[in-house]
Design brief:
seven-stranded mixed β-sheet, two-stranded antiparallel sheet, alpha/beta, 729 residues, 9 strands, Rossmann fold
Length: 729
């Protein structure tokens, strides 16, 4: 028999463990997209259990269903319009008062609801005992205890979900949220007015519509105009306005505020009935840890150490699997070269596709480690502490610590980081944060640092990379101060930062977060980087009929003839030295031929045109072209260097790029200037597009392109020329 399909929505407050439970339930069977019409992330996963195919939709985390933010609108609209079979509300059992507000709003909707009291172990450690049966009876919904990061209670949660979905019983009377006498009278009167204007096809619960109209919910007004028609809806809205006026006269307060207070009163009563706080004094571990990690004196140095350690781990541990992949790419290149006859096709595959894409794929371990560390910060709760520590610094540029969270996310990818600024209430704060976030070094820049730092600063590569990331933060802060003074004056919006309790992260959840973010990197391999590598190869390969300055083949033949004669008449102990000298001279001639071919190719011609712009930074024409292609995607910087610099190598060994860079005339100082330019200049094409989307105008995006590129040139110039003056050139 075919399996039955159930649709289940996961709702809950931020930091309630909702995403952890979603990952535990669905594992890798997830797909990520955007909700229709908005850029809020949409996650879906699938489970097969007891003859059911269960599709789980992870709704955006919200504190209520009052439509103040895009996330709240998306969550409420999905429940109202899509009618999921069951809604599971993930409740932080250690913070019931806050979590039950959203829970009560869900009870008011016409949907089947389950309350999952998550982090039950944390609640117990704080001396909080919850009577689930009493709470279930009082609220009229099933209640299940879970510990998401340990996978506890999830089987019971799924079974309860299936049982509730199959239940034919209606919404119990206990589900109604009871208000004071005057408000209940107004709800009843308005509900009657709604029922007079509608029939049985009206899709919403009339009582819920009445509550929302008394709260003056603008979106609900628009919806009932669509469902009822203009005239009936206007009559209902007029009745609601009269009742609102009467309630304001009675309470001397906006009805929405009165109803909110009464909901919290109801929540307080629930807690008193169903929750017992044990007398034994419990130690709040999170608070004690925060005494150290958020301390005004040692907290910031600890944060700096954690960031430094993250990059040390990324570079040091990633070096081993990176070397294995490097060898694998070299073997693949050699295999393809031996398999195909000499010609354009072999050249395309070996020097275009494998050299280009292969030069990037070897950095996958480093990218995975970086995203793993970021996921670790998020899942333990330390990410919020980092924002808290940066709060005072952020205030210096007219922002608050909450703006630092998108900036930290920028270490992974600037695109979702810029989208995350939508959580900021002030438009000026959002634009300012968007403008400075591209200075946060994304993972796409990491391969460039690893190549150059590994080649010229091998002993201290991790520290050099850390200093680059730190420089990005400093430039972002200085830019923020400048923009707040000149372009976006004003005071930051008031904000109270929430510090969720520390949690032991679940390895499965960390791996899922790491893989979700790394998939973007892999998708680029088969898309933009593949295409970019082929284009770079074509530009460096054509025209084919190069007019060389001399006959390199004849010179190589002459060297072979001369040294064959010398070797034939040499003493046995000198033969090896003569062969080495012959091979060295032949290698030099081949390198000179490859270099001349590259200079006279189309990409070489482009490079010579733009080289004067970058020459003061110590960057040659090949580096200039690499920076130009990096506008599309920063990973292409490495693949371009792989094509242009590695042409000086006669073989396809895996270390060709490192060896070619050392022989190219690039110095540690010019390599540092190149890395700084990559750190600070124009974000990738996708970032420019999302800046235009989030700010609502292309002008801010173009301004960001011009400003970041100008800053990159100036800082790289100061570093390179200043280093030369101090004798480091």
């Amino acid at each position: 028999m075919p399996k039955k399909l159930l649709r289940v929505a996961l709702a809950g407050n931020p930091n309630s463990g909702k995403t952890t439970i979603f990952n535990s339930l669905t594992g890798t069977r997830q797909k990520v997209g955007n909700w229709p019409g908005v850029t809020v992330e949409k996650k879906e996963g699938e489970i097969s259990r007891n003859g059911y195919d269960i599709k789980v939709i992870d709704l955006p985390g919200t504190y209520s269903l009052t439509p103040f933010s895009i996330e709240e609108i998306v969550a409420r609209d999905f429940i109202l319009e899509e009618n999921p079979d069951v809604v599971i509300d993930i409740i932080d059992a250690s913070n019931l008062e806050r979590s039950l507000y959203l829970a009560n709003q869900l009870r008011e909707l016409d949907c089947k609801v389950i309350f999952a009291l998550n982090m039950a172990d944390l609640a117990k450690s704080r001396g909080i005992q919850i009577d689930a049966e009493t709470m279930s009876n009082l609220l009229g919904v099933p209640v299940v205890f879970t510990v998401g990061n340990k996978g506890q209670g999830l089987k019971e949660l799924l079974q309860t979900t299936i049982d509730l979905a199959e239940s034919s019983s209606g919404i119990p009377e206990e589900r109604k949220v009871r208000y004071s006498k005057d408000i209940e009278a107004s709800i009843a009167e308005l509900r009657d007015a709604i029922e007079e204007q509608t029939d049985e096809t009206f899709p919403y619960n009339p009582r819920w519509i009445a509550v929302k109209l008394l709260e003056d919910d603008q979106i609900v007004k628009e919806r009932i105009r669509q469902k009822m028609g203009a005239a009936p809806a206007d009559a209902v809205i007029e009745a609601a306005q009269q009742l609102r006026g009467r309630l304001m006269w009675i309470f001397d307060e906006d009805p929405e505020i009165v109803m909110t207070d009464e909901r919290y009163g109801f929540i307080d009563g629930i807690i008193r009935e169903a929750v017992i706080h044990t007398i034994r004094r419990r130690v709040d571990i999170s608070r004690n840890v925060d005494l150290v990690l958020t301390n005004r004196f040692v907290g910031f140095p600890i944060f700096i150490f954690f960031i430094w350690a993250m990059f040390q781990v990324t570079f040091t541990l990633g070096a081993y699997p990176m070397e294995w992949l490097d060898v694998g790419v070299g073997l693949l290149s050699g295999f393809v070269e031996g398999l195909l006859p000499a010609g354009l096709v072999r050249d395309l595959l070996v020097n275009g596709v494998i050299a280009g894409v292969g030069s990037i794929i070897i950095f996958l371990p480093n990218i995975l480690l970086l995203f793993f560390c970021i996921a670790l910060f998020e899942d333990t709760g330390y990410m919020s502490r980092a924002a808290f520590l940066m709060d005072k610094i952020m205030h210096q540029i007219g922002l608050h610590g909450k703006s630092f969270i998108p900036m930290l996310m920028g270490f992974g990818c600037n695109v979702p980081a810029i989208m995350a600024t939508r959580t900021l209430e002030s438009r000026k704060d959002r634009i300012l944060t968007i403008m400075i976030t591209p200075f946060m070094s994304c993972s796409a820049r990491l391969p460039v640092y690893i190549v150059l730092a590994g080649t010229f600063f091998a002993a201290s590569a991790g520290t050099v990379i850390f200093m680059l990331y730190f420089l990005g933060i400093v430039v972002a802060i200085l830019t923020g101060r400048l923009f707040r003074t000149v372009l976006l004056p004003g005071v930051e919006a008031p904000f109270v930062m929430e510090l969720p309790p520390y949690r032991v992260p679940m390895l499965k959840s960390l791996l899922i977060h790491m893989w979700d973010r790394s998939k973007m990197f892999l998708k680029k391999m088969g898309g933009i980087i593949f295409v970019g590598s082929v284009i770079v190869w074509a530009l460096s390969t054509f025209p084919r009929d190069i007019d060389y300055s001399k006959n390199y083949d004849a010179e190589i033949g002459r060297i072979n003839t001369v040294y064959a004669e010398k070797i034939r008449h040499a003493e046995p102990d000198r033969v090896a030295a003569l062969k080495n000298k012959r091979d060295q001279l032949i290698q030099e001639e081949k390198g000179l031929r490859s270099a001349e071919k590259a200079r006279k190719s189309y990409i070489g011609q482009i490079g010579r045109v733009i080289e004067p712009v970058f020459e003061p930074l110590g960057i040659d024409w090949r580096g200039s072209v690499s920076l130009l292609t990096g506008f599309v995607a920063k990973e292409i910087v490495v693949s371009t260097m792989g094509v242009l610099y590695a042409v000086d190598e006669a073989d396809a060994e895996s270390k060709a790029l490192h060896n070619a860079l050392r022989k190219s005339g690039m110095t540690p100082l010019s390599a540092l200037a190149l890395m700084i330019f990559v750190l600070l200049y124009i974000p990738c094409l996708a970032t420019v597009a999302v800046i235009a989307q989030e700010t609502g105008t292309i002008r801010w995006a173009l301004f960001n392109v011009a400003y970041t590129t100008g800053v990159a040139w100036v800082v790289a110039f100061i570093v390179y020329q200043g280093g030369r003056l101090m004798g480091f050139g």
